[in-house]
Amino acid sequence: MKANELKGTWGTVLLPINEDESIDFERLERELVYLIKSGLAGLYTNGTAGEFHTQTEDEFLEISQLVASLCKAANFPFQIGLCHTSAQIALSRLEQTKQLEPSAFQVILPDWVTLNETEMLSFLKRMAEAAEGMGLVLYNPPHAKKVLSLETVAEFRDAVPNLIGIKVADGNSSWYGSLRKELRDVSVFVPGHHLASGLLQGAQGSYSNVACLSPKGAVYWEKLVETNPVLALDVERRINDFFQEAVVPFAKQGFSNPALDKLLATIGGWAEVGTRLRWPYQFISQETAERLRGAARAALPELFAQADKA
Questions:
Q1: By the 8 A CB rule, do 271 and 31 touch?
Q2: Residue 37: which residues within 8 A CB-CB, separation 6 or more?
Q3: Residue 287 CA to chain centroid, in angstroms?
Q4: End-to-end Cα spacing for the chain
Q5: Is there a contact between 29 and 272 (Cβ–Cβ < 8 Å)?
Q6: What angle, 0 to 180 degrees and rounded to 10, lies between the N-to-C axes of helices 117-131 and 87-97?
Q7: Looking at the predicted structure, is the pLDDT value of residue 296 above 60?
Q8: Which residues of 44-77 are buried (b: 16+ CB within 10 A; e: fewer)?
Q9: Which of 48, 84, 163, 168 could form a disulfide with 89 if both were Cys (CB 3.0 to 4.6 A apart)?
Q10: Which of the four pLDDT bands, split at 50, 70 and 90, describes residue 141?
Q11: CB–CB of 282/259 below 8 Å?
């Protein structure tokens, strides 16, 4: 996949966790089948929402192989997340999975000890060399120990040609002006709940938390940006209002982003993901999530109308 091909709404692979904290691969396969049929631009594995930080290396490989098998059978784009705080383990994950031929690889900067820019570039260059021409997407969220400027990303792109994309938090109109100036040859993905305003200002897509809530609804909303941008922006306002009312209070209580994404998926009710996280992470109860389902449908009927279609 090239930078100009990386766009649209991508869905995260969420891990269904059993009471004994094992991964339920039967439920995971049913989830993947649904996501592949939902119209998303693609899937990605082993991000924060996919709980990469809790996986053993055997589990990482089994998840990657299952996703690759189902996506390749359906000719469906997928990215493998190599994310790890250890550069050595991230590199090992790449070596183990490049024969699966994903559309791209996602990486984070090793972040237990903060890297300087020379070390960051060394990491990206070595990962790119090992990827043998396959694209890299850098996930650089606000909670990263080193949040990169757009100018630094542009410098890295010049030095690492197969750095095709970056996932970031967006900013104001000035930030988008810099994006259009600095990153014309990098695909920039912004938060899912800012997709409409992001696309209208120069972003290319999102690794979408809205797709956690309703994969089909998220696809519909993306299309609405082109056909009815005024309505698309109104949907964005209502998404953010709902998040403020129903999701942000849990974040303020200290629940992690994976807990919030599984909350959204359970509210959406489109798959048997469940809200459970692995120890030691706290999760929101299934019953609490289900009680929010009516409020979500009332606030965002368009998204759920798509999900209710056959």
A1: yes
A2: none
A3: 25
A4: 31
A5: no
A6: 20
A7: yes
A8: bbbbbbbbbebbeeebbeebbebbbebbeeeebb
A9: 84
A10: confident
A11: yes
Give the integer Cα–Cα distance in Å for 5 and 61: 26
Distance CA 243, CA 296 (A): 9
Decide if 16 contacts 262 (C-beta within 8 A). no
For residue 70, the one-letter residue type is: L
Cβ-proximal residues to 244 (8 Å cutoff; 6+ apart), any chain: none
CATH number for the region 3-308 comes to: 3.20.20.70
- When the pLDDT of each residue in the chain is averaged and rounded to a whole number, the result is 94
Helix (H) / strand (E) element for 231: namely helix 229-246
* Token digits of residue 162: 């197969």
The one-letter amino acid code at 53 reads H
Which residue, among 85, 89, 88, 47, has the nearest Cα to 64 in the 3D structure? 47
Q: Which residue, chain included where needed, has tokens 């400027």?
A: 149
Q: Which two tokens stand for residue 83?
A: 């994310």
User: Residue for token digits 């109308």?
Assistant: 305
Q: Of 27, 32, 25, 40, whose CA–CA distance to 214 is shortest? A: 40
Name the 3-class secondary structure at 93: helix
Q: Which residue do the tokens 């909350």 mark? A: 263
* Angle between helix 301-308 and helix 215-227 axes, rounded to 10 deg: 120
Residue spans per domain, the chain: 3-308
What long-range pairs does 296-301 form, CB within 8 A, spacing at least 24? 296/213, 296/242, 296/246, 296/267, 296/268, 299/238, 299/241, 299/242, 300/213, 300/214, 300/217, 300/235, 300/238, 300/239, 300/242
pLDDT digits (tens, 9 = 90+) for 170-218: 989 999 998 988 888 899 999 999 999 999 999 999 999 999 999 999 9
Residue 202 has φ and ψ, to the nearest 5°, of 125, -5
Contact 47, 80 (CB under 8 A): no
Round to whole Å and give the CA distance between 54 and 277: 9
Nearest-angstrom CA–CA distance, 309 and 194? 25
